[in-house]
Amino acid sequence: MTVKLYWNDAYLKEFDSVVEKVEGNRVVLRETVFYPTGGGVMNDTGMLTVNGVGCRVADVSREGDVIFHHLEGIPQMKAGDSAHGTIDWDRRYSLMRYHTAVHLMDGVVERKYQAGGITGGQIFPDRARIDFAMTGLNREMVQKIIDEANAAGREGHNVLAKNLTKEEALARPNLARTEPGREMMKGMDSVRVVEIEGIDMQMDGGLHVANTKEIGKITLNGFENKGKNSKRIEIKLE
Ligand SMILES: [Zn+2]
To answer: For residue 79, what is the domain's CATH number?
Structure first.
């Protein structure tokens, strides 16, 4: 199991660790700050320095509880070597801002429009895609939702991650927003949730800014009609 330092502190930019395993160009460390692709969010990138040699971390993936750092080139290292990792902070911080922006919009939709109105999201360093399943949703309504999310964001709500017991989690309706999420939750002893105080709480394994003021202004960059009850939008942050 890789210790996930990013869950203790999403603002950690570098860390010391030990190489546990090398498999081709993939390296497993005892602990890491590198976030793997998952939950609709792209992976971190950065540098891993071992034995005085720096290697680019081009991709990060997760298999069960183990995180794999995919290096550019063949790693000159072995199990037991000390390692120092540094993530590309600008990219990560941007991913965090977009991720919280999507939750903020989800919170607005859940509370004021339609529970389950947002069915998915994909977060990139320079944009986010959001899928809606709302009857009659048009560009004007999306703009209104964005305006309301921006107003809520400017109020400066704290964003916290915490663990709920299974009982606490099951007692809260709509904590998991997707069918696979609801299935997954049934098998968990404790459920990590991300709360935007006063706005939204949902099951989430991702990383977020500490306060909604850090998001900045959300703008609508695209509106795609994918069917009667299926719309996809793209947002950008200023
Ligand atoms: Zn999320």
So the answer is: 2.40.30.130
